[in-house]
Sequence to fold (396 residues):
Amino acid sequence: MYPSMKAELAARDGDLRLCLLLGIAAWFLFLDHVPHNAVSLLTMRNFGFSGATDLFVFVGGYTAAILYGRMMLERGFVVTATRIFKRLWQLYAAYIVLFVIYIDLIGYVARRSRASELIGDFNVTGIVDHTIRTLIHGLLLQAKPLNLEVLQLFIVLMAIFPFVLFGMVRRPNVTMAGSVGLYFAARQFDWNLSSFPDGRWHLNPFCWQLLFVLGGWLALSGMNQMRTLRTLQELLVLRVAAWLYLLFALAVTVAGKFPQAGGIVPDLLRDAFLPNDKGNLAPHRVVHFLALAFLFAYMVPRDWSGFRWQMLQPAIKCGQEWLAVFCAGVFLSFAGHLVLITGPDSLAMHVLVSFAGILIMTGVAYYVSWSKRQDHKPAFRTQAMTGLPEEGRFAK
Fold:
């Protein structure tokens, strides 16, 4: 099994589809996180049951399995676990910096602009009456500032990933079955983590782990499973069924957002699928995302020539540097919201704020990528590079 798994992981290493999807997810999360942004009507969540968060979590699990799966097969559990926890620490450190600066910035702007509603809009009301307690609970991932819930979820998922990966490498189907069982048990018994000052996590990690583990399971699938998946993709009836489900999800979503168009979907069906339970990851949401992934994998192969298009390079670069881009997007979403509530409320302003935010996020990605390349360059040119003998170099 291991040689087959190693071969599959080696073939998937450097898959630009993952970078492209992560970049698009980061852009969509930014647009969705700017309240009342007209441009956000163009993001995934308005065309079906699933959204950018689903894409972000699934691709994150898929990418992590590729990156750390080969390491576990070659170097063992202990080394791999330490590398995962190192990455976990980076994510947690990024969250802490974001959390502290973010809530302080919101409080400062709310006081200076006398827009006290900002504190409520961004779920940081506790910072006014219980500053120290809010900071402590924030360190424990129990605070709920708006727009940080995705990063909180990702931290928890990465914390359990060494054990999930250990099971995936040895008993992938059993581990996947355990994830499915946990998902249904959490929905049945209403399991979730508590938050401060009240309530529970907006994104239930007991449910959302399903997409993360599913991504890892598909990344670590052996040759037999991959042949089965490719055979299924070639079946016209399955592709038609996937398209029909996507069209159905689109009709239900449009009917829910625009009551005047409600006649296109019977009330019974609309009430059954709406409101869309994002917090506990509704089953029809999972099916919708899998239909999207199924069709995307069929239509966009790994060696797709479109990856060389210049217009896609910014999204790919943002996917490669997703953590820095996500952090920038959190601050930019707050800045965009502030601009929209203090400036002219026009479609042109919404487009300008959205375009400027994506442009800045892309600039951050290119800068981080450039900075990493500088770290790997030698500080001084070697003798071979200069072509001069040791004495000659210093004599000059």
The chain has one domain: 2-292+308-371. The longest helix spans residues 77-113. Residues 16 and 316 are 7 Å apart (CA to CA). Residues 382-396 have pLDDT under 50 and may be disordered.
